[in-house]
Amino acid sequence: IARRWQQRPVEAVLSSTHEWRVKVPARLQDVAFLLAIVLGISTVAMGCPHNGSSSALEVTPALRSSDADAESDLRAADQAALDGRVAEARDRYDGFLADHPDDPLVPLSRLGLGRIELADGNAEAALSQLDLARVSSDSVVEERARFHRGVALYLLGRHAEAIGELEPLRGQTTDPDDTQLLFETLASAAAHTGDHVLALSALDDLF
Question: In Å, how far from its chain's centre is CA 75?
Answer without folding.
Answer: 20
